[in-house]
Amino acid sequence: MRLINTSTLLLHEFSGRDIPLYAIFSHRWEDAEVTFDDLRGGKGPDRAGWRKITGCCSQAARDGWEYVWIDSCCIDRSSSAELSEAINSMFSWYKFAQVCYVYLSDVPSADEDHYSPNSHFCQSKWFRRGWTLQELLAPARVEFYSQDWVEFGTKSSLEDLITSITGITHLFNYEDACVAQKMSWAADRQTTREEDQAYCLMGLFGVNMTTLYGEGGTKAFIRLQEKIISKTDDDSIFAWSHQLGRGGLLAESPSFFAESGDVRRGPFDAARPPHYMTNKGLRMELILLPQQVPDSEPCFLAPLNCTREGSRRSFVALQISKSATAYAREGVFQTPEWEGKRMIPIVIFRGKKPLFGQRTVIFFRQELGQPPGSSTLETGPSRIVVPTLSLLECGFSPSQRSNMVDGCCWKQEDVDSPLTRKAVSAGEVAELFFTNEDFGIFALAIGLDENRIWIDVVQPLNQPQSLSMAAFPEISELLTGPRVDRISKWLPNGLSVSAAVRVAVNMGMLVYKVDVMVGSGHRLRWAEKRIVDSELRQRWKRTESLSETNLEKGGRQSRPRQVG
User: Per the database record, which ranges form the DUF8212 domain (predicted)?
Assistant: First the structure.
């Protein structure tokens, strides 16, 4: 462990029992921080962050501390091994510090009423960063300072205010909180590196794991939960709700626990065997309570050993159904076993605990999201953009014929601007009509199916109000046809319409851009070509015969001539 001497501002290295008493520093990383190389090479005073270093050391020296630890310059971040070791040790370093100085660089003065909800103190970004959570909870004594090093107060004197800002009710006894509560404290916090949303929580849960920058935030957070599961039977780790859940029991981000701050541990089936990870997925033995859900697949409630604060005789329960590839195994002397998937959201089970209930073994497979480094792809394009200037020049004007809620309708600022609307979700179809007084009408249909964007050109026989089944029966053909992102079709008047949809960037935003062209000619730009199986087989047969013939000719030509 490296420490800075508060008088000389030089680095010293200690280990084991030789580590002296020390203060520790907490801040938000900003531009031009003083690094390990800067401090060791004497370049610290040239950096903008030098004022933080001198301010912290001066305060520590005034309080009588000879050494202080500062993350920006006490870790050699050029060494991945040292960085990983430091991240795994950081919680304990903060925990065993004598005092933690919190420097709020975005709070200009300690004179204002910091109890006002709009005060600089309450609005400080320090309270919304991932790494500062452990820096708030781990040390017993925390002091808060403004940007000019004037003290606001301590974690103790400001306890109620800090609780109102962060929602943390266990500032001095975080160990008593269940997993879901702790996760909820991190739900709205941000980190620069997506993997750090998991790594910054390791110490809070008392686990260690290798840091693998590049694995992606989702995978890192899944690994964190697997580590937590291996050392605790706290069911509240499953008590999260989020619309992006993929059927597994583990959350993909701390944000999935945003509504879980009031979850508490409570015994529903106290004798239940422990859950654990297997190569089939997470294995649990659960008491299942059948639910009658009209027009839905068979669903079961599986109450967990946790409840919500203030809910008497009620338990948090998972909604579970058999997965599409489920297998079942039952026998007279055998516990029922099948593969299941989680349904969103969690619900509250209010009823008597069954005196006797057969448990079912269920395996939950965890599906991961997009690959690392694809945070933009995880959300996908947010809007559809359709340039219309070339169509207007051809006499085709756009129209919207369905009454849609705001946000789902097409909007256009002026004639030169493209039409825009929010992106379609899975199974949804966006419609847009183009009308020409001389040549009639055609419609664009844009949809999303299994994460594949598709487009079609539709020619209504009348003047429908929308592409609905009632107003436009051909929509059934459209929704069951091939999903393509390039298409051309003839209009009855001899003109052709070609449309292409692609992912593009517009005004710094990821969008679906739709290019539409109307033209005349004898060929379609994106003509649909189908290869019939029999035709394909004939082509292959001709190709094989030709290849064999060439081989025979080549063999005769290359055969060596006998001499003598």
Answer: 219-243
